[in-house]
Write a structure and sequence with these properties.
mainly alpha; 38% helix
Length: 146
């Protein structure tokens, strides 16, 4: 079911019902990115802040998910992901704003992938990093109780 805050249109396009139902998930974020790219604008906005954490994640993975979400590209240094200086390419005679935006988009995409990976690992139920959920009676991620 679509969230009450889900709009009927995005960038002038009607939102399909299946996307309305996933508006605050990665599927909705990908659809919004496609709509943005279809307008011939080269640098889509960062969608990871519009995605909600899925239900059922353990506290340890929730914390890791939030840490990745809150990692930001530094437009001053323009360092490539994951934020270490020393790019092997020196930008000379190019549009520095365009290079900076390309790196921001690269940063946003890779950080989003890390968040999705954390979701997959946690929700698989097989991660040894998962801490027990207090209300479940389950002491390990593989479902074995003490």
């Amino acid at each position: 079911m679509a969230d009450a805050s889900t709009p009927d249109t995005y960038l002038g396009n009607a939102i399909p019902e299946n996307i309305k139902n996933q508006w605050c998930r990665w599927e909705g974020a990908e659809w919004r990115k496609q709509q943005y790219n279809a307008t011939n604008r080269p640098y889509p906005p960062d969608e990871r802040f519009n995605v909600r954490m899925p239900d059922g994640m353990c506290p340890a993975h929730c914390e890791a998910w939030l840490k990745w979400r809150n990692v930001h590209f530094d437009p001053v240094t323009g360092d490539r992901w994951p934020g270490t200086p020393g790019s092997p390419f020196v930008v000379i005679g190019h549009d520095l704003k365009a290079v900076r935006e390309e790196r921001r988009v690269e940063w946003d995409e890779k950080t989003s992938h890390q968040m999705q990976l954390i979701e997959q690992i946690c929700l698989s139920g097989r991660s040894p990093q998962c801490v027990p959920r207090e209300d479940s009676g389950v002491s390990r991620a593989d479902g074995v109780t003490k």
